[in-house]
Each structure stands twice: as structure tokens, then as C-alpha cells.
Amino acid sequence: MERRVLVKSYNKYLPPCNLFFKLQYICLTLFFTENIMAKKKKKVIHFPTSTDNLIRARARNLELYKCYMSSEWEDSREANIIVSRKHTNGRITYGVFLVDLALLGVKDVFYQFNEPESRFNEIIENSNELKAGHFIKVEYNLVHNIIYGAIEYADDYGFKPHKSFSVGQYILEEDDENIPLIDIDFGLDGLPAIFATSENPMLKEIAQLEKEAGRGNYRIVHLDEDEEYEEEWQDGDGDIMPGWDDDIEEMGVPDWDIKEWETFFSRKPEDSSFRVIQYIADSISYERYLDADFDAFEIVLGDAIYSESFQEELPQKEERLLKKVDKLIEAGDNEGAHKLLEEGKTEFPGSVPIYLLSLVMNIAKKDKNDLIEDYEGLYNHFPDNLSVKCLYASMQIENGNYDKIPEIFENKFSLKELYPHRKKYSESDVIQFCTLLLDYFIEKDDLKAAEPYYQVLDTIGNLNMLSKYLLQELVLKKLDLIREGGAIDTNNLRIVK
Questions:
Q1: CA 89 vs CA 38, 42, 114, 121, 430: distances in Å
Q2: Cβ of 13: how many Cβ atoms within 10 Å?
Q3: CB-based contact 85:62 (threshold 8 Å)
Q4: How buried is residue 45: exposed, middle or buried, by Cβ count under 10 Å (0-12/13-18/19+)?
Q5: Which one of 92, 233, 312, 439 is at 20 to 30 Å from 217 when CA atoms are compared?
Q6: Which residues lie across from 230 on neighbouring strands?
Q7: Model-level pTM greater than 0.70?
Q8: Each residue of 287-302: pLDDT tens digit?
């Protein structure tokens, strides 16, 4: 099932609530109390051979019962969800799902099978969140869309649901066409977001985002600082128009009459569908101003190919070291991880991943203005590496130094010129490269030069919010030229100021 991910601005960031852990505590307390009393009465307690197997085999055959959820999930970007099912004998099977809507998806799952309804009600009634109005009863379809939508969003950045979801999912309905789709907002202001604290700086997750989303395409929110702080790397206000999933053929746009065109031009672009605006802007600009009879992929890539699954293999010793670092970060030993990375720099002076991970660890500790030196050092050490070039260039753009871009890319604005012998790239490499140069040429008001990167990105799809923002900006620039009759150099489709 596909879900549209909407963009919405949130003005407050609430720390994750701890209802999930309170529920675990209540359940365990009730469980041990009951079993201790049973032993005192010399009763024999019989447990099923596998609660997990019973849930897998039987849960979906039970009637859906009550669903509860934390009421502040939209603002906090985290939801505690309870889904219950009722047996024919009146007993309850239920699951508790801790869901991060900002990035990580399903973070934990706790479940119980064939429990007395009185115990289930006691858990709900003893919830301080329910008493305070922070825990509400909801319809099943809403929580289903939140849980599976969060899993899909997390998967885009390489994060998988907690291992206990392999069992907990059977308390939910199957994720198929029988469940009505509901538009849910994921991420934070249109970007994936990490909520970090001084005790848990989330370095492993940040490293994953650097790899999958790329610099400029995510946020870090520090929950334990006196003032709310966001690590935001996106230029502009990041407002994305609706309608990216619209189908212009189904909407009949190619057959619009004069009145429908006049109606369209009377609207503000923000109030319309992006795909409709794009169709009209591209059609008219290609017809009147711009020769679009070229192969954008040939211009950017030459005869090289790209693949979503392509990854360069690392030497075994280097890969083992990085796995050790990963385990240290996961265990919270950031000092040990940093020390091992420094040793790795000496042992593997040509390893981009080691140097890059070292830099990523500094992101959580340094102000972004203090990182320029680190990025410059990384670029000086690996001046020919594509990822490093793009990271360094993005830092320059972030600081308004657009004139540095030609120097970084040696005045070669295509991958086939930069790396004439290279025949394969990852999809993320191509997206990162095209996004950066699209940003550069939009800033220079050179719409013709921006066009190949625009077409490549729009064809690939699967874009981060910064890439979408830039595609939208180029479309709106074309539309402005058409609507306002601005002065145009028709040879270059350049805005004349």
C-alpha cells in the first residue's frame, strides 16, 4: 500500500512520553503478583508452549476491540498505541506499539495473549496519561495507518521496525486494500528528524541519516537544552506544495479549455496541485523558450548507470573496524568509538567512511558554524571523492559561498566529465549530485543549465524534501516568467535582472 506523506509545520517539540514503559511495568507487576499468590495456594500454573506462536496463529481471527493512543502524537511526533482483540470467552489479547513518526518507525512492541478483561481494563484505568487526558480512545483505521505509514517512512532511510513487531504485527489487521488510507504527517517540517539528548546523542542514527538522506536533508532536535534547538540544513522555508502524487492524465489537464486555464492562472501556486503547475510550466516553457530535445541522463551520467542497491565494497579489515565502532556507539560508548575511529584513520588513511563517520560524530557536539573547518579538512584529504565533494559543496552553499562550487567541481558539471572511467553510481550519489547543482544553477538564475538536473531528479523520484523543494522552485521560476511576461534571454532561458 502506498501512503502520501504530507508536510506540516510543528511549533513545539515534546519529549517522548513514557506510557509504553509504564504499561510494561503495570503488566509485569500484575503478572508476578498473580503467580506468587498462585504458588502460595499451591496451584499449578500452565503456560502455553509459545505465546508468540499463538498470537501468530490466532490473533487475526479474533474480533477487533478497543484502541487507545496518546493524544499529543501529532506534536510530539511519537505515539503510544494500544490495539486489543476480544476472544469469544471475553478475554483480551492486545499489543502496545511505541511509534516514532519523525523517523524511526516502530521502536518497540509489547503484547499479551488471552488476558482477563479485568486486567486489561486495570492497565488502562491505572494509566496516568488516560487520567490526564493524554491517552484517548480512537478508531482502528487511524492507528493502522500511523503504524504502517511510520514503518514505510522509516524504511526509506534504512530503519527497520523493532524485532518484536514480527509477532506484534499479527495483532493488527493485514496491511492491504481493505484498510482505508488516511493521510498522515511523517517527519518534522518535511524532513526526517532525530530527537537527541546529552545522555543519548543518537550518533548511530545520525550516521545512518548522513548515509541515506545526505547532509542538508534531516534535523537534529536536542530535547534537554534550555531552548529548543534544531539542526536544520535546508535553505528557505521548505514549504512543499500539495499534489506531488497527482496524475494529470486522470485529472484531464491536457484537455483543459481556455476557461480552465484562466481559472488556473488566477490562483496562487500554493493553492494548486504541484503536478498541474509543473505540467503547464514545462509545456509552455519547452514550447516557447527552451529546447528540451536532449537526454538529461546522457548529459549527467554519460553511458554510466545508477542503481538503488549499488554499494562499493570495503576491505574486510576496514569493514570489521566500522562494525566495532557501530557496536560501541550502540552501547553508548562514544568515547571508545571516537578512539577507535582515530586509530582507524592511522591504519586506513584512505578510508572515506571512517573519516566521514568521525565527522558525523562531531555534528552532534559542534555548532554547524564550527564544522566548516572539519569539512574543509575532509575535502582536502579526499578532493576526488564524489560524496566528499558534494558534502563540502553543500556546506559552502549553506554559508552562501556559491562561487566556490565551480572550483570544487573543477568546472565539470556532469559525472561523465568528473569521472570519465566510472560506469556505476548509487541512486543516492546521483540524487545528491543533481540536487546540489540544481540548487547552484537556480541561485545563478540559469534555468537552462538547471534543466538536466531537474529532469533527472524528477525521473528518479524517491526524493528527499530538499530535492522536492528545489524542483518546485524551478517550476515556479518558469511559471513566473510565463505569467508575468518577464524579460527573457530565450537562448539561455535566463532571468534578466
A1: 22, 26, 9, 16, 58
A2: 19
A3: yes
A4: exposed
A5: 312
A6: 221
A7: no
A8: 776 666 678 889 988 8
